[in-house]
Amino acid sequence: MSEQKQDHSQNQAQGHSENHTVSIAVSWGLVGIPLAYGLVETLRRAANLFSG
Fold this sequence. Notes:
With 52 residues, the chain is mostly helical. It contains one helix and no strands.
């Protein structure tokens, strides 16, 4: 009986860590995509400022 409880708790822990990994990836995407866009736009406008 204790083996069943242990297996169940390991399965829950694994599912919990997978959910945590997905939420971290989504969070980085929500922050990283606008950050990358802003950085590219800033560099493009700075290039226009210094070249023209």
